[in-house]
Amino acid sequence: MFDAIRRPFGYEPVLTKEDLKKSPDKKNERAKNWKSTLLRIWKLVDEQRTLLIIVLALVFISSAMALLGPFLIGYIIDTYIVPGAFEGMGLIIGWLIVVYVLHSVSLYLQNYWMVGIAQQVIYQMRAGLFGHLQRLPVSFFDKRQHGELMSRVTNDIENVSSTLNTSFIQVFSSILTLVGTAVVMVMLSPMLTILTFIIIPLMYVSVRWITKRTGRLYKEQQKAVGDLNGMIEETISGQKIVKAFSQEDRVMDDFLEKSERLRRTGFWAWTYAGFIPKVMNFLNNGSFALVAGVGGLLALNGSVTIGVIVIFTEYSRQFTRPLNDLANQFNTVLSAIAGAERVFAIMDEAEEADDTKRNADKRLDGKVEFDKVSFKYEGAEEEWTIRDLSFTVETGQTAAFVGATGAGKTTVMQLLARFYDVNEGEIRIDGTPIGAMPRETLRKQIAFVLQDPFLFEATVSDNIRYGKLDASDEEVVEAAKQANAHEFISKLPEGYDTVLSGDGSMISQGQKQLLSIARALIADPVILLLDEATSSIDTVTELKIQEALERLMEGRTSFVIAHRLNTVRKADSVYVMELGKLVEAGSQDELLNKGGLYATMLTDAKL
Amino acid sequence: MKTVFSYTKPYSLLIGIALFLMLLEVVLELLQPLVIASIIDDGIVAGDQDTIIRLGLVLMGLSLVAFVSGVANSYFASHVSHSFSFDVRQEVYKRVQGFSLAMFNKFPASGLITRLTSDVQLIQQVLYMSLRIMLRAPLLVIGSMIMAFVVNAQLAIYLIIVFPILLAFLYVMVRKGVVYFSFVQQRLDKVNRLVQENLQAVRLIKAYLRGKYEANRFSEVAGALKTDTVKAFRIMEIILPILLFGMNVSLLAVIWFGAFDIRSGDAQIGELVAIVNYAMRMTGAFSMFSFIIMAFARAKASSDRIEEILLANDGDEVVQGKTVPIEEGTVSFDKVSFTYPGTSRPVLQNISFKLAPREKLAIMGATGSGKTSLLQLIPRFYEATEGSVSVHGRDIKEWDLQELRKTIGLVPQQSMLFTGSISDNLSWGNEQAELPELQGAAEKAQIDETVQRFPKGYETRVGQKGVNLSGGQKQRLSIARALVRKPSILILDDSTSALDVKTESSLWAELDKEQATTLLVTQKVRTAMRADRILLLEDGVASAYGTHEELLKSSSLYREIALSQQAEEVGEYV
Hints:
The complex is a heterodimer of chains A (607) and B (574).
Chain A: H1 2-10, H2 17-21, H3 23-46, H4 49-81, H5 89-135, H6 138-143, H7 146-188, H8 190-197, H9 199-237, H10 239-244, H11 248-300, H12 306-328, H13 330-347, E1 368-375, E2 386-393, E3 398-403, H14 409-416, E4 424-429, E5 432-433, H15 439-444, E6 446-449, H16 460-465, H17 473-482, H18 486-491, H19 509-523, E7 527-531, H20 539-553, E8 557-561, H21 565-570, E9 573-578, E10 581-586, H22 588-594, H23 597-605
Parallel strand pairs in A: 3-8, 3-9, 6-7, 7-8
Antiparallel strand pairs in A: 1-2, 1-4, 4-5, 9-10
Helix pairs in contact in A: 3-13, 4-5, 4-7, 4-12, 5-7, 5-13, 7-8, 7-9, 7-12, 7-13, 8-11, 9-11, 9-13, 11-12, 17-19
Chain B: H1 2-5, H2 12-45, H3 49-98, H4 101-106, H5 109-134, H6 136-151, H7 153-161, H8 163-200, H9 202-207, H10 211-236, H11 239-264, H12 269-310, E1 331-338, E2 348-355, E3 360-365, H13 371-377, E4 386-391, E5 394-395, H14 401-406, E6 408-411, E7 420-421, H15 422-426, H16 435-444, H17 448-453, E8 461-462, H18 471-484, E9 489-493, H19 501-513, E10 517-521, H20 525-528, E11 533-538, E12 541-546, H21 548-554, H22 556-573
Parallel strand pairs in B: 3-10, 3-11, 6-9, 9-10
Antiparallel strand pairs in B: 1-2, 1-4, 4-5, 7-8, 11-12
């Protein structure tokens, strides 16, 4: 039994004494962070100022009514009940009913509107964060786990949501009640007022002691949550591999370790935070005892009445109650602030460099030049992925890229679409550097068929239409036909209206490819980027697709990475890459005659 | 809710202690108005100073004891709720690990993830609150009522009149709340799914300039979430004002009738004050109710969703069975047909073949012809609907699932790596493998050289799904991972598609040396020719089976494929 009770003490301490000592500089930083976080939330809340003012007015009314109730009861006791004269008591009771009605109505309405305000703020945070994610550069996503980002968009914002719903009104009404009770109390008995308010500094000191610990613990907890979620996301979406390799135990161990860390940090965070309402309650009860005892003594010499004691005991509860509620939710509030901080941290990430809107609709011709382009991925230390790359692809030509995997072929495409910015040199389309071109203009000219075809959890036709949102049904079918997808789509249970499940498990990998090709076809681009798009399509289908692609490539500049020599053969020019550098370029025949790397590659392949 | 909360059982003692402490705290608090009544009646009205001081100190003492039990309660509540959620999370995760792949089609990944994260968190929070404040509210209400009766039953009657009405009202609202909050939860699911999709398809969305479109789509679902949340909360917000009003009115009744009782001598002022005090405490406790209801409604929705997993059946993958092979390395399909669970169209029909140890089978066929489905039957990801699949001379249903899979090296079509170092990822194949072994496998997979070039070599971290590697690098790592376990059966599902010709042929040369029965899906006749036999699939039916030469003669489709690829290659070499 004692083991069970003592168990948490066996947890490795999350905060050491050194941690707490370290606090001064960090504390300031945190306070500053909190201040700016709260300020940003406030800015969002403030956007609905009219409603907010109404809510605040209602809070004012309900707080006033909450004060008036006990006051009138005290008055009834002193004026009517103690002397035993009941004339006029009915009228006061009638007024009390009015007070109670007003109290309830204003309470309801303030919450009614506050929920609206709070949810609007949450909506804006959500949509803002999501919109911002859309504008972040691809490199941002390379660095982060999906699960961890997910937890920000979902958990963190949820925390803010539940806090805003309730805490905002509570803070405001506690302040009002505090001030109101203070005024009435001073008027009734300054001596008892001092006794009641003695607890406030005590509250402050003890809450400070606690929050100093919880603040950091909550951050730890949130981090543990993020880590765990990331791990869960990854292993669940990669479940097939976990199973294939019978790694359930290993994954489970990893899971338990992360889960245990969350339990440990969470336990201490919640335990400390749990002290707050208890402390408040204790101080509250203490002052209650003081008021009753000292008030009783004062009543003996007649300086206070019984009614006043009744009012005081009720008031002392009333102004601490909201504070108490707040303290009860203290953990939510803390994690909400931590959550908001993490959300804002993403919103502060630099967006893809600013795009001017000019020329957004201009259709380019599609002449592509790489001029001494060098590039390395962020974080890659000395390794250049692309080194000093120069070439020109004329309008309407097809350029095939060959080379060992990792030679940088995919990167060339990603640079052309400006997923990443080059470190040195310049990429030009029709003579204009793409860096000086709005991304919108640039990407409008480009259609991509990516290595891993991704489909959305939507209907087949919506997935195709992704390439051109305003495409008619006929256009969708036409594109599907061209991509050779029409046949299998027609066999699906609901044809073009079949909803594909999230992971697209209903259709085969090759069929996904076909759909992604249809999606590219409908986009009608100037520049076509095909990244190993034909690799998992069978030969028979591929022949038909080749046909369609050839039709599509007509008049368009095309960059193709394909391992089918057939594709390479039809290209106007072939670029052989090795370790990020261009080693050979020219037409198929030229390269063969030259007898360089390309020729060797072919001979090797001959078996 | 029952199943989920049955996980609190191991902690019943601790829960008992926590509840007892809370009860103690509440009782002590409830004694306060009684003491106050004494102060007024025996102290002030009787003019006895000593009694006032003595009772004042008693009040102080009571609060101190209440404080200590409160703090202890907080410790236990936190301990229990975190341990509970730890257990539930573990159990759910274990269940999910045990799911067959068919279950994954039923429960999409995003739903499983929310269950394991926010749902568990929510019920943890509710348990914590129940151990601290939730029971406190009803206890305070009931306790105050009892105390009021003890003080003066005649006056307390007026408090109890409104009670049944308020309770009935509460009941109705709780039921409503549960419904509304489950709507909200569904909306939240949708939002989460959209976010996940977007994170996965970043490049695609950017390439098609659909950032704004996605943002609009998101605004729509987030807007629906907002509307429903607001609706749910607005309904819940009715509770508190009505409860308060009911209590306040009965309080007035107490005062009105109390006044007459005092005049007639049936009651004393102190008693009236005490009852008023109790009534106000009840009102205060009621203000917690709507909060509690909301929490419970949400917990109900969450625990229902968790229970879906805990109670899900079929899923059980953990199958005990035979662990020793009869004839290591054989694979045979005997009249196997297969239909995906929940669908009606068979994807494989009447497939039969037999592979001796170290034989190689190439599977060819159009997309959607059932190649991947066939391979998935071997590690028993799915069960054949008809016929039988035997591995190592045993029907796979007799096999211990883990042992069976340990003998298989699978390289899926889409290579997926996990967050961690490259060596972590490779050791998935065999946890005991030392670095030289990992390196050996990497060498065979033609990736060692590339890894060595990374500044941190085998300790290089690969990110989410291995984003900072190219497709071909991922494929080769995933082949190396399979080779590390020295499998007696190797399954390659078109896993060399992102490799260039040169790398691919060195890779095949290495694979030829492996002591494994190999099943490979390929599009290339050149690759298929390396196999001992070729199985050609057409719409789930084996349209041809035999050696390259045999197929050239017997299958017109195969001939067509071979010719088209030959033409292609001949064209190159001229």
